[in-house]
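Here is a tokenized protein:
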Amino acid sequence: MSADPIVLCGIECMKMCRFVCVAANQLKLETVTPYGKCFLAYYLRKEAITGRGRVAEAMYQCATCGLCKEWCLPKVDIPEIVKEVRAKLVKDGNAPEPTLEIGKKTKSEKNPYGEPHEKRFAALNKKGKSKMGSVAYFVGCTSAYRQLNIVNAMAKILEHTEGEFTLIDDEWCCGAPLLSTGHIELASEHAEHNKKAIEDSGCSVVVTSCAGCYMALSRYYPKMGFPLKVEVVHLSQYLWSAISEGKLKLKKSGKGGVKVTYHDPCHLGRHMGVYDEPRSVLSSIPGVQLVEMDWNRRNSKCCGSGGGLQLNFQELARRIGIERISEAVATGAEFLVTACPFCKNQLESVAEGKIRVYDLAEIVVEHLKV
């Protein structure tokens, strides 16, 4: 019989996770370390403690980024343990108020920001024409309401490579923010709705610009019982395929040469294993020199906005983001590129002019050879 992973965390590990946890490194509290959260989960399960007050707070001082798992000797999936506990906290009404609030907003407006649902595609001048076998763009909440430049860049890319594309009628939040914060039942409702909406669109491929959307549609929809009958690809995968097939050509950087560093989104990298395609796309731009941060690929540090961290603890998330910006600046790069609107939103907000932050779609559009 396999041992309880929570118990394994206590008896078989040297607790290397404490040194890489972005939240614990900022707060300097044992309770907030990944193994500290495992102990809390154990005592909650045994009903030795309640899930109120400081216990609930500690369980949400986690970005669910997964870096701890990379350094865990018994490979305990602490982010999944945290999400299980959060689901119970939400159900009991003990989660932090901002977390409970996004459940209400998403229930009402189909996005965690509480923005009007009817304005989801407002950034697009026109809607792609739906046709069987076409490529569909799953816009996502952060692109739709906070990073409109990414939406327009995606539209230009898809119009260039496909001629036309389709949007998903009545697209709802993918559910990734709901899953990470504990709103499991609501996430399942969104998965069921989006599955039908996507498959009814007649597309054969869905492209996402958001790493969280890609992870939700690819990994969590099947786990929830709603596997899609269409192919799901992230923007970086789509771009590299288009470049390799000669459908998309890029021109030289106007400056003749520029250093760029890349931030791996946790959802795209550690959670989905997509590391090479974004780098291949950047390296294919003539004149671009890709330089890596010390913490990259599977060891990439989180930007600080994931797992509801920015939602519930803005100052903590800001400090984590500033640390990542400092690492990017240390490479000597002029541009910091990522492949997730959530990461871009966070890093851009704390960059303070020290480095320019781009999404992959934006930098590709700037170098698109038409």
User: Anything to note?
Assistant: Residues 108-243 form a domain with the Rossmann fold fold (CATH 3.40.50.1860).
